[in-house]
Amino acid sequence: MSGRLFQKEKDFLQGPGSRWKELQYAISVVAQFLKGFRIFHFTGPCVTIFGSARFPADHPYYLLTCQIAKKISAEGFTIVTGGGPGLMEAANKGAKEAKGLSIGCNIQLPHEQQPNPYLDRFVTIEYFFVRKELLRKYSAAFVVMPGGFGTLDEFFETVTLIQTKKISSFPIVVMGVNYHKNLMAHLKQMVEDNTISAEDEHLILFTDNIDDAIDHITKHTDSSRTRKDLSNKFKPIKILGEQEIKTRS
User: pLDDT tens digits, residue range 96-106?
Assistant: First the structure.
């Protein structure tokens, strides 16, 4: 099944197709958004934590991710990750240790990714761009841990949207300063060459200090995204197959 779904997007990206196939694809995109809405509408305010699936449980970045997720969860946020292993697992584990909500938003790929054991709910999305929009729509902030192309894709696209005023009051914290030292240097080079403004560089906090990260998130997040009663704003409708999300004991 996943192979056919993957092939469908691959075919779409090859160029113009028949009108019927293009319509089918558009309908499937709408269906994916609705699938995400039915989960995220009932999670309350979220913070998404990105990071590599390749770091083991004894790695310092795993431990750091678990600690920052635990602190963020204690502030009343639902922790959202890609739902897989490595630093995603660490973030979901931190949320569970703080007795907070822990959600996975996976992306469907040719090789299935198994959900980690620390999730209260898990949704699988077929298309990267749908997944990214869902994460931005429902998140109050992003925490970027060491990762690969996918992590940097989320990071740069979101910074671009902040820079162009498409979204506002959306703090981004990048942790793992040594890992990201070349990224920091490149941003400074972009400022020097005037390809971005100096203010753009301040959209992001680079730090390994958990307290500074929490302060940055709580200080710069839009208050409408952080209300503790946000989860009560929308109630599940059972006839639509919607369910209230509760933490597991």
Answer: 999 999 999 99
